[in-house]
Every structure is written in structure tokens, then in C-alpha cells.
Amino acid sequence: KAQRIAELLGRLYPNPPIPLDHASTFQLLCAVLLSAQTTDKKVNECTPALFQLAPDAAGMAAADVADIQACIRSLGLAPTKAKNLKAMSQMLLAEHGGEVPASMAALEALPGVGHKTASVVMCQAFAQDAFPVDTHIHRLAQRWGLTDGKSVEQTEADLKLLFPQSLWKELHLQIIFFGREKCPAQRHDPILCPVC
After folding, report:
1. Homologous superfamily of 25-125
2. Is the predicted pLDDT of residue 98 greater than 90, yes or no?
3. Active-site annotation holder among 56, 86, 134, 158
4. Residue ranges per domain, the chain?
5. Is 116 a catalytic residue?
6. Could you tell me which of 135, 139, 138, 137 has the C-alpha nearest to residue 171?
7. Which member of 17, 157, 169, 170 has the greatest number of CB atoms within 10 A?
8. Architecture of domain 2-16+130-182
């Protein structure tokens, strides 16, 4: 079944684009951090103003938290995210010369950056074979019978065993796009869904 799903998604979304707008690895990291509990569309509406205020780690570290928050106020958890963006940028400057480190451990040590955010940056910015699993992928993997994992961590482990490593980066995006277009959480018609 996993092979059939991979083939179908590969046909439907041969070169899946990164859905978050960014002009650098730092901006991608910020956008992924902001995307928690909101939509990519909403993040893309906020980031032009944010990246005008602070295009890089030095700019974000120097910016006032209130100004950062003003740029992202339409997003959920804006006060926390604004604090994290500043603290994360200060740590990037202090420990990594203002550059985003290409290591899961170093990324996960940054304020506000969890395993999923680090995984997205590793595969999309550094072309590493990570398989980021968010709530959408977790939901679809359960619906499709690919995991009975209770947590995203368990689902990630199961999917990594089911799919070849060379497909992980693309599959992460392909599953998200497929879920949005053909296999939504609500009002889903399994008869029309090519996987279900």
C-alpha cells in the first residue's frame, strides 16, 4: 500500500514546491517556526512585513519584540512566537555567526524550534533526508492505515520504515498537498479519494 501511495503522490505532485515564502535559510526557519498552529497562507501574508523589518538574524536580534509581534499579530501564539524569533536570532548570532546550523541537534537547541521545525529546515534548506511529520501527516497516515501511532514521533518512525529514504523529502510535501486537496479532515468523501 505504501508503494501505491508513493507512486500516486509522485504522479500528482512531481516537484512539490515549498509552500512557505522565503529568500534565505534564516527566513525559512522563521516561517516554519511561525507556521505552528496556523496555515502556510497566513504565514505568507505576515512574512513580507516581518522580513522587511528583520531580513536576517542580526536584524531580528536587534528588533524590538513589540515590533516583531506587530508584524505577526494575526497568527496564533504571536506573543510567544515573537519572543522566540528574537531569542532564536540572538542565539544564532552568539553561537553560529548568524548562520542557520545544518544539524538537527543544533537546530533543536534554538528557542522555539522543535523536532518538526528542525526536520523541515534540514530537508528543505539542507537537502537532508528528514521526514517531518506534522498533525496533518499524522492524521492522514492514521486514516490510510500506515500507522497506529498515538504520537507524531511514532508516526514518523513508522513512515520512515515504510518509505525509501530517497522519497522522504518529497513525500512530506506531497502528503500535505494531497491532504489539502483530496483528503481533508472534515467533510471527506472516501469514495472520491484515490487513497481511501
Report:
1. Hypothetical protein; domain 2 (1.10.340.30)
2. yes
3. 134
4. 2-16+130-182, 25-125
5. yes
6. 137
7. 169
8. Orthogonal Bundle (1.10)
Contact by Cβ (8 Å): 193, 183: yes
On the question of pLDDT at 187 being above 90, the answer is: no
Sign of CA dihedral 81, 85, 87, 88: positive
Q: Is 189 exposed, middle or buried (0-12, 13-18, 19+ CB in 10 A)?
A: exposed
**How many Cβ atoms sit within 10 Å of the Cβ of residue 195?**
19
Q: What is the pLDDT of residues 69-87, one digit of tens each?
A: 999 999 999 999 999 999 9
Span 52-69, pLDDT tens digits = 999 999 999 999 999 999
- From residue 57, alpha-carbon distances to 9, 107, 119, 122 in Å are 36, 14, 20, 18
Q: To 5 degrees, how large is the angle CA 145–CA 128–CA 14?
A: 60
Q: Write down the catalytic residue from 81, 86, 116, 169.
A: 116
